[in-house]
């Protein structure tokens, strides 16, 4: 089944690409502002929120990269699978970096509990409010595209979560300003760090799963085998492999032994339809063989 990768990013129009780029510029700009503001004000919560905003920028950047990778791959004959794995490699690098940042934030927060430093609440409030405005702007820019693309939807959810982080930093600044309770800043930093770590773990796990070419999470390979075996004319199903090329693009390869009287075209169409409708597999390589030929196929450990 060679035609029609139903990849979400591929369906985005020029307007959505422009919105993605605008959201990327806004998010990246305010991420740098939050890092500078965190260093200037001494706020660990603001630096932690900047790390969270980094995930937003990378998520949007990966959505953009997927769009442009598809276009570039069209003219590269040696890239037979395109450049989709760049998105996965970027996600793995993102997970490793974020894990390190989150651990540093947690360790630094514990150290500050013993001797909380003074935090400049005025500048902290200004930067935090600016960050919240940036998140709202990115949220509005991505809202429509999230309905069309799984990549944009991921970035959209990242921005939504970061809005909560910005609100938390504003809350910590208010508490410090009104009560002088300096512990609010490291406590909020810990909360944001704890919020980032599970998502970072899931991101790294999913990236490694794709790079190791494991079956997609939640997909029952034996059920796929059973569905193919149920196609009229199929006698045996072997050498079945299902893996993920990149987020939202599952692919498969399989050998089908068919009965002597079965129509080749009908078997192929039915098998492709079973994979498409039952498991969302839009690209499959199907090798059809005469009945009894399975023993002639070389048996591999994978």
UniProtKB/TrEMBL annotation:
One of its GO terms (molecular function) is zinc ion transmembrane transporter activity. SUPFAM superfamilies: Cation efflux protein cytoplasmic domain-like, Cation efflux protein transmembrane domain-like. Residues 218-290 form the Cation efflux protein cytoplasmic domain. Pfam families: Cation_efflux (PF01545), ZT_dimer (PF16916). The chain crosses the membrane at residues 20-47, 53-70, 82-107, 119-142, 154-176, 182-201. Belongs to the cation diffusion facilitator (CDF) transporter (TC 2.A.4) family. SLC30A subfamily. One of its GO terms (cellular component) is plasma membrane. It is a multi-pass membrane protein. Keywords: Ion transport, Membrane, Transmembrane, Transmembrane helix, Transport. It comes from Actinorhabdospora filicis. InterPro entries: Cation_efflux (IPR002524), Cation_efflux_CTD (IPR027470), Cation_efflux_CTD_sf (IPR036837), Cation_efflux_TM (IPR058533), Cation_efflux_TMD_sf (IPR027469), CDF/SLC30A (IPR050681). The keyword tRNA processing does not apply. It is found in: Membrane. Residues 20-212 form the Cation efflux protein transmembrane domain. This is Cation efflux system protein. NCBIfam families: CDF. It comes from the Bacteria. Signal peptide: none annotated.
């Amino acid at each position: 089944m060679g035609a029609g990768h139903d990849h979400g990013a591929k369906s985005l129009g020029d307007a959505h690409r422009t919105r993605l780029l605008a959201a990327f510029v806004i998010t990246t700009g305010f991420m740098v502002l939050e890092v500078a503001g965190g260093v200037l004000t001494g706020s660990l919560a603001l630096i932690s929120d900047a790390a969270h905003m980094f995930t937003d920028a990378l998520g949007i950047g990966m959505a953009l990269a997927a769009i442009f990778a598809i276009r570039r791959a069209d003219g590269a004959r040696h890239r037979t699978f395109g450049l989709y794995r760049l998105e996965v490699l970027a996600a793995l690098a993102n997970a490793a970096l974020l894990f390190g940042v989150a651990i540093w934030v947690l360790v630094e927060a514990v150290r500050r509990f013993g001797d909380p430093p003074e935090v400049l609440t005025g500048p902290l409030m200004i930067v935090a409010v600016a960050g919240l405005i940036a998140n709202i702007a990115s949220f509005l820019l991505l809202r429509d595209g999230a309905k069309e693309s799984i990549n944009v939807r991921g970035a959209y959810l990242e921005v939504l979560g970061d809005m909560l982080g910005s609100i938390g930093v504003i809350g910590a600044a208010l508490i410090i300003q009104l009560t002088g309770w300096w512990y609010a800043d490291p406590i909020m930093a810990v909360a944001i760090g704890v919020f980032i770590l599970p998502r970072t773990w899931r991101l790294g796990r999913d990236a490694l799963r794709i790079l190791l070419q494991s079956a997609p999470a939640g997909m029952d390979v034996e059920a796929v085998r059973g569905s193919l075996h149920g196609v009229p004319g199929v006698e045996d199903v072997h050498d079945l492999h299902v893996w993920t090329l990149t987020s939202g693009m599952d692919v498969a390869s399989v050998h089908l032994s068919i009965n002597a009287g079965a129509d080749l075209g009908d078997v192929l169409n039915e098998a492709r339809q079973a994979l498409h409708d039952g498991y969302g597999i839009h690209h499959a390589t199907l090798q059809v063989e005469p009945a009894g030929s399975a023993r002639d196929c070389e048996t591999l450990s994978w």
